[in-house]
Specification:
Helix content of chain B: under 10%
Order of helices and strands of chain B: EEEEEEEEEEE
Number of strands of chain B: 11
Number of helices of chain A: 0
Shape of chain A: globular
Helix content of chain A: under 10%
Mean pLDDT of chain B: 91
Low-confidence stretches of chain B: none
Oligomer: heterodimer
Largest sheet of chain A: 7 strands, mixed
Radius of gyration of chain A: 13 Å
Largest interface: A-B, 24 and 23 residues
Distance between the termini of chain B: 41 Å
Number of strands of chain A: 11
Shape of chain B: globular
Chain lengths: 116, 113
């Protein structure tokens, strides 16, 4: 149980376009989902916390107008990278916390974004 | 600001040897996580340590937590090649439930025959 999926797994887009990444909790309800970014050979950095039915909370230095997050249901959060640039190329990983759970986070398989 | 420091960042060791990865964090938290990441893959959860003195073991890996020293260790016993990966420790912001995690820089572990 506690499986998180992401779609797509890989995406290549042109500079200036937008791309949407989906994060789904497949067999549980997730009141909170998190979005992380990982540059090559670096650690994961928390970008934002997404709560179902409310606005996302962004970490310092993360542009909320550039990285749009929507958490429309207890099983789906989306991250849209708007007007993508090559420096946005990264590995984006989401995680989800079980509704009513206290500490475990379940990570998705990640989405590798390449902006040309 | 919560900071998490791991050391070493890179470790090359021979099969059969023992070694320890250290994880220090800067503020109070009683939830410490260890993850494994293989190249090009996402994170695999290894351990969640919830309280001072917690010790968990799975196969050749054992993790412990000392909240007073703000230190966690991941000990590898009789390493085998399959354990080659990058290992991250992470701490939740406030020690609460649904909090984002702050990760260490990771320890890139290579185990040679």
């Amino acid at each position: 149980g506690a499986v998180v999926s992401q779609h797509p797994s890989r995406v290549i887009c042109k500079s200036g376009t937008s791309v949407k990444i989906e994060c789904r909790s497949l067999d549980f309800q997730a009141t909170t989902m998190f979005w992380y970014r990982q540059f090559p050979k670096q650690s994961l950095m928390l970008m934002a916390t997404s709560n179902e039915g409310s606005k996302a909370t962004y970490e310092q230095g993360v542009e909320k107008d550039k990285f749009l997050i929507n958490h429309a249901s207890l099983t789906l959060s989306t991250l849209t990278v708007t007007s993508a640039h090559p420096e946005d190329s990264s590995f984006y990983i989401c995680s989800a916390s079980l509704a009513g759970g206290q500490y475990e986070q379940y990570f998705g398989p990640g989405t590798r974004l390449t902006v040309t | 600001e919560l900071k998490v420091e791991q050391n070493p960042l890179f470790l090359s060791m021979q099969e059969g040897k023992n070694y320890t990865i250290y994880c220090n964090y800067s503020t109070t938290s009683d939830r410490l996580y260890w993850y494994r990441q293989d190249p090009g893959k996402s994170l695999e959860s290894l351990f969640v340590l919830l309280s001072n003195g917690a010790v968990k073991q799975e196969g050749r890996l054992m993790a412990s937590l000392d909240t007073k020293a703000r230190l966690s260790t991941l000990h590898i016993t009789a390493a085998v090649h399959d354990l080659s990966a990058t290992y991250f420790c992470a701490v939740s912001y406030s020690g609460g439930g649904a909090d984002g995690l702050t990760f260490g820089k990771g320890t890139h572990l290579i185990i040679q025959p």
